[in-house]
Input
Amino acid sequence: MKAGSNLEKVLSAGHFALTSELGPPKGNDVSVIQKKADFLRGNVDAVNVTDNQTAIVRMSSIAACSFVIQMGMEPVMQMVCRDRNRIAMQSDIFGATALGIHNIVCLTGDHHTFGNQVNAKNVHDLDSVQLIDMVRNMRDNQTLLGGEDKIEGEIRMFIGGAANPFADPFEFRALRAAKKAAAGMDFIQTQCIYDMDRFREWMRMMRDLGVHEKVHILAGVTPLKSAGMARYMAKNVAGIIIPDALIDRMAKAQKGADEGIKICVEQIQELREIEGVHGIHIMAIEWEHMVGRIAEEAGLLPRPQAA
Amino acid sequence: MIKAVQKPIDEILSYLDTYSKILLSGCGACVTVCHSGGEKEVALLASSLKMARNKMGKNLDIMEITPARQCEPEFALELAGMVEGVDAILSLSCGVGVQTLARNFNNAMIFPGVNTVFMGETVTHGAWEERCQACGNCILERTGGVCPIARCAKQLLNGPCGGSSKGKCEIKEDTDCAWQLIYDRLKSLGQLQKLQEIIPAKNWGTESRDKGPRKIVREDLKI
Output
């Protein structure tokens, strides 16, 4: 075991993993975390706590992760390169592991101009590949980046990264994931998948490069709430592809939300059959109460008790 | 070359509010090429400032000069004879030239008339784009001659983020994704294997101004 987290145990034991996501409050109202955690507890193996996602200022991921532990769940701390330099990142990783956080997802971070601090100076001291390499080095060599200084204590982190098979240049996407794997990534959570053909093609490229044998790939899904949401995402969110057939299906449905859940469950079943997919990451944005239902209908409950 | 744009005239007028006699200096180098601070722009701005001040009933005397390169002391010193007797200097040079004047003329207030924006190239007549951030350790050999430090919104060194779509950057539809350009060039050159190498964490400390302003000293050129 590299980190000994529940997520690592589940994946190492060969179980089909399930993770989800929890966005911290836009302030210090802990009841927001409590409410979301109550919906997710028991339904997933671990929950990602986002790090100021879409560059909207929220409670820090590290603090919210700590609350998630107190609430009886295992967190996956997301860390973006946008807001911190290598000094702050390593310092936060010391603190996070001391607080009992043993999963991390290393991300570039959404550009700050999408958020509510558009005049900020972004950092990007490291990129996500370099961040993965730094955490691996802290864990495996007990040293800081570029130095011989031994770390006091033990950094146990199960290291994750993201992959977006729907961004361009498409041919480079598997190669980029391979670079992350070479840097020390243990698991991947993908951008939400709607275009199954393109995802299958990306997985074929991943298998050709042998990445599926080095890292656990968790396929990302986001249930659609309505045809309007599908149209909006398809048009406005870079790096997301939603086929017209799916938008039409949502538009024709009597109850959009139910149809969205149904589609999501079908997607999970389809993704589960793809060689190299070891789990699902459900990003139910402000729809955490649906995660249990999706997991149930997809046959992913109860969650395994990994020893 | 360095690219700059003229500041709004109201901002310039606000600097000059309490002054009645100024020296307006352009520069014959970069700002002439990008039409923001050459001899022509000096003459135009001088006329505009005088008209604006006349309307306010506050006369403004302006002397004009455009040295060949305001950032070099031997040219900047051409202003010496004119600085005597003016209240302030307004410079249409880049931020470097403004500071050359500040260092050489202790007794005059210096105001910038342009915003210095970037180092870039002319992509078409009347359009310039950023190309270099003077990071101090050129990596263009590894990236097919396209700089991700200057041209990627996140300065990524190991490939494009998830926001690269159809060749464009997610933050601006009219901006090419630097990593798409890098990929396309290396592919056409048969050099895609370069993209498999992990570029390690950059040494910003010694390569850029994060460790304070940089200096180049060439002993062989000193006199």
Q: What stands out?
A: The CA atoms of residues 142 and 167 of chain A lie 35 Å apart.
